[in-house]
Amino acid sequence: MSSHFPLARLAVLGTGLIGGSVARAAHRLRLCRELALYSRGEEREVVTAAGIADVVTEDPIEAVRQADLVVIALPIAAMGPVLRTVRDSLDSKAVVTDTASVKLPAMRLFQENLDGRVRWVGSHPMSGGERSGFSFARSNLFEGAVSILTPPENPDGEALALVETLWLSLGCRIVRLSALEHDRRVAAVSHLPHLLAAALIRSVDCDALDLAGPGFRDVTRIAAASPEMWQEILLANRENVLAALRSFLTHLDEASVSLQTETGAALKQFLLEASERRQSFEKFPS
Amino acid sequence: MSSHFPLARLAVLGTGLIGGSVARAAHRLRLCRELALYSRGEEREVVTAAGIADVVTEDPIEAVRQADLVVIALPIAAMGPVLRTVRDSLDSKAVVTDTASVKLPAMRLFQENLDGRVRWVGSHPMSGGERSGFSFARSNLFEGAVSILTPPENPDGEALALVETLWLSLGCRIVRLSALEHDRRVAAVSHLPHLLAAALIRSVDCDALDLAGPGFRDVTRIAAASPEMWQEILLANRENVLAALRSFLTHLDEASVSLQTETGAALKQFLLEASERRQSFEKFPS
């Protein structure tokens, strides 16, 4: 663990699945001497009752005060207002990161609000799933996950090390990418699959749904996730999602033509390449 | 358990994942006094070594002799030759079932070879997954799965009860459908999802694949399955798969248009309906 840990004060803004899990892990692993959480509405009571934080507040300024690391785990739409509210109250030595699923818009908010004031590094821990909210948060949510860091153009080494150590402590494998490249790749492996799962479950008649086995269950699981969250993600990354969709449709069309023309050899080759690719993927570190 | 169980002799033709799991379950649950398996090639040695059967033979005639229930767990391409080989050696009181994923062609083979000689009932246990072969067979594979029975037009009550009791004993929930209706519905919840998963994993660049999280893993898992088996299934059920694909593409296009035109409300409605549908599905008995 870097010499900065345990942190004097860690602030987590947002206590949904991701923010709540960061908080639970920080508490369990004693990553900070003081843990401050910004939580709103009904969830705040549940978060307070969990007894993991020193401060649970509806005031983001109170949460970030004297924090050496601030993790913003809020929808992108909420990130801007919160950043404008807290930017003058951040410690000049603080490092700010976020957990947004689309990094270009998050980076722009950091640039507008923090550049020249406070150091920042973008993060995207590829965890989560179909459930949301603090009640599903767990301290081991990030174990074995990839956390993608999207640093600014000329990153501060210390800030980068601090954010990297946070995710490493939580059990992540680190990948560094530009925000642009992050958004392109994640469109393909996360955002498009969500859209496909949603379209698939909508396209199946209820009488057929009753027959579905574990394969269908797996394929469509992510479609159960929060529509509000996914609407925001898909719109924020629409150009990349549409490009990934075009690529997918090209491949699907190839299979469809093989089926229509009953070209068994081509269909088998299509399935063989997919199978090999999926099997080699299973061997990747996760 | 029906009065026919334990069976005097159960014959399972084919010892891949499905046939092997039927055999393992029959052994564990003592569903028969004698268990005879038809197994070929290298797998036969492994099956013999498992010590679960009284007879493991490369001769299907030897396997079916005096069996009161015969389960054919072979690819459709192998079913015809085996049926022609064994039909004159079947006990006149025997009942024959199969486990093929597409029921119309399997039904035609039963009609051609067994009608007027021996009673038959089609079965399709909706289990399996991305792995195949005897080494993955397990006695609890069918627990909690749906088994779809596709009886002939004027089914024999006793034959139907016998096959139904087999799958109930193995832990299945039973659904009865015509072969036609089976093939239509299963195209939507099993065959099309396989094609989509294969097209998705092919469409993703390797650099993006390295970032994939548990969601992507779930969506694409089934694509790892045997290309030979799936080529046969998709071609055998091509009309229904193509119809399911058209329905899927209509829904996907709806989402794509919402994204292209940045119509957030429509996109959210699309995702909301998918999420509700997926959540209600999770409550179904499985």
From TrEMBL, chains A, B:
Keywords: Oxidoreductase. GO terms for biological process: tyrosine biosynthetic process. Gene3D superfamilies: 6-phosphogluconate dehydrogenase C-terminal like domain (1.10.3660.10), NAD(P)-binding Rossmann-like Domain (3.40.50.720). Its EC number is 1.3.1.12, 1.3.1.43. It comes from the Bacteria. One of its GO terms (molecular function) is prephenate dehydrogenase (NAD+) activity. It holds the Pfam family PDH_N. Residues 8-286 form the Prephenate/arogenate dehydrogenase domain. PANTHER family: PREPHENATE DEHYDROGENASE, PREPHENATE DEHYDROGENASE [NADP(+)]. This is Cyclohexadieny/prephenate dehydrogenase. It comes from Methylacidimicrobium cyclopophantes.
